[in-house]
Amino acid sequence: QVQLVESGGGLVQAGGSLRLSCVASGSISSIDVMGWYRQAPGKQRELVATIISGSIINYADSVKGRFTISRLNAKNTVYLQMNSLKPEGTAVYYCNWRGLEDKESWGQGTQVTVSS
Length: 116
Hints:
There is one protein chain. Helix content is 0%, strand content 55%. By secondary structure, it is mostly beta strands. Strands 2, 4, 5, 6, 9, 10 and 11 form a 7-stranded mixed β-sheet that branches. A 4-stranded antiparallel β-sheet has the order 1-3-8-7, with no helix packed on it. Strand 7 (67-72) and strand 8 form a beta hairpin.
């Protein structure tokens, strides 16, 4: 069972930056998919970014050019650097892991609030 613990959320003004971290414990492979999702109040959870093995990366169109996902396989850690934050980025951000055989885990979430 893979467990995920996020950190780094908080309150920031529009245009500011935050860096989220997610540490995974358990059996992690570098080819597993790790990523970030977010859920704003009253909305469905949506993809922010995913990364496989540090080189295959996918971003939601809404964050391209502003957010950067990275991964340190030696520490089972995935990061999300968020720059030029907008008020619509206010949400709970969740770390996600997907392994073989449809195995999946979610973190508990970290709140990001962007004030205008």
